[in-house]
Design a protein that fits this description.
Number of strands: 9
Bound molecules: S-adenosylmethionine
Shape: elongated
Strand order of the largest sheet: 5-4-3-6-7-9-8
CATH topology of the largest domain: Rossmann fold
Structural class: alpha/beta
CATH class of the largest domain: Alpha Beta
Strand content: 15-25%
């Protein structure tokens, strides 16, 4: 079998399984299984693929056909300009979450300042590490309830050359944190509990429940975090939260009720209101 035939077979299998992006996913999986670059994938279409290599590639395609996400199969995922390893306790980072990174960077007047950041529910560490990669003198603390997520995030800091400026610890939101920060970020779990059963299998079966379930109305973690913002932030400090579809105004009201102002709601690339940013008064 040559690469062209293998590719066609993989795409057809993913299409038949109802995968949204069969061509893209087949390419990622075949490149990974056969150690091909993107260029190889196009220029070596006629190359013969040994049977055992083809079998290995098709085994990955079968996992995807069973609705395991590509990132879980590969074990890592790109986010912003960094690459993050995943583990069973870390949410697979989503492109929508880059809205939070953009929202924070857009509100920082001096990127060289020695800012102190904290990221609640850090997961892979994606938000904190992406921000540290853009803020050369900043330091950050990532907090997560899951020890395995904390371990994964620390590994991701090493993987991206940011370990000297990033710390990670287990914790229940801001309990026990007495320091003050210039920037508080979080992408907390925000799916209403009753909606979890309706999520796509990629999410429901492969992302950790603890990373998804935001309580009866999806807003429980925001209520807890908002209540601590005033004591966590320095005067003039920034807070930025990722929010689920339809939650932006409620989350904005929660942070404003704690005395924050300059509230802004920012949209993701799909036009969905995805981030609420606010500032503590000077
Ligand atoms: C939606 S995920 C976000 C992960 C990562 N920040 C991202 O954007 O991909 C929410 C994270 O919050 C963590 N979490 C849930 N409850 C928590 C709590 N009480 N305290 C701290 N972290 C919590 C979960 O373990 C999960 O890693």
């Amino acid at each position: 079998m040559n690469l062209r035939t293998l590719r066609a077979q993989a795409e057809a299998r993913l299409r038949e399984a109802g995968v949204d992006t069969p061509e893209l996913d087949a390419r990622y999986l075949l490149e990974h299984a056969l150690t091909l670059t993107r260029t190889d994938f196009v220029t070596k279409a006629e190359q013969t693929i040994p049977d055992d290599d083809a079998a290995r590639a098709l085994a990955l395609v079968e996992r995807r056909a069973a609705r395991e996400p590509v990132g879980r199969i590969l074990g890592h995922r790109e986010f912003w300009t960094i690459d993050l390893a995943l583990n069973p306790d870390t949410l697979e980072p989503r492109p929508d979450t880059e809205t939070v990174v953009e929202a924070v960077l857009a509100a920082i007047p001096d990127r060289k300042a020695p800012l102190r950041l904290i990221d609640f529910g850090t997961g892979t560490g994606c938000i904190l590490l992406a921000l540290l990669s853009e803020l050369p003198n900043a330091t950050g603390l990532g907090v997560d309830l899951s020890p395995l997520a904390v371990e994964g995030a620390a590994g991701n800091a090493e993987r991206n050359g940011l370990a000297d400026r990033a710390r990670f610890q287990t914790g229940d939101w801001a309990k026990g944190i007495g320091d003050r920060f210039d920037i508080v970020v979080s992408n907390p779990p925000y799916i209403p509990s009753a909606d979890i059963a309706t999520l796509e299998p990629e999410v429901r079966q492969h992302d950790p429940l603890r990373a998804l379930d935001g309580g009866p109305d999806g807003l429980e973690p925001y209520r807890i975090l908002a209540a601590d913002l005033s004591r966590l932030l320095v005067p003039g400090g920034l807070a930025a939260f990722e929010v689920g579809q339809g939650q932006a105004e409620d989350v904005a009201a929660l942070v404003e009720a704690q005395g924050l102002g300059e509230t802004a709601i920012l949209c993701d690339l799909g036009g969905v209101k995805r981030c609420v940013r606010a500032r503590k008064a000077q």
